[in-house]
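ingest -> validate -> predict -> emit
validate: passed (alphabet ok, no gaps, 174 aa)
predict: started
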Amino acid sequence: MDALVVIDVQQGMWAFPEYPPHDGEGMVGRICGLIDRARAAGAPVFFVQHEGGPGEALEPGKPGFALHADLRPRPDEPVIAKRQCSAFLDTDLDARLKSAGADRLVICGMQTEFCVDTAVRGAVERGYKVTLVADGHSTGDTRVLKAADIIRHHNNTLRMGFAEVKPAAEIAFG
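emit:
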């Protein structure tokens, strides 16, 4: 069974004007479309939320910790808190996915070179087939690379033995 995993699409990711997510609102719109299609197909949707430390943009209880306002998990959809880049390390994500019968994960979210990359690799290590949403993950510019280049690089790297990489419009659930 397919499952959609949405990684760290939280308000705090938009907290730094000098480091905005590349095409952030476009990405959120495509993720919302994936959520709608997954739900319509009966595929489970899992949200992952990063817990930052005190004073950080993603600190629990602070505005930045909340999921993006356009993402509206249903009461029966898990929101799994994590403290590491890995959505699997010290969480019950793997157990919940297995309980739901998931064997293929469609992964999207924030940030490309950190938590999205780690989620893809962690899922493969656990035996899942993975589809990375090519236009459904983002990051901001760094001092070394522009965000668009980071995204292209990870799409290219992760398609080599880790994931099928497809644009959101080409992803079907079921």
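The chain has a mean pLDDT of 97.
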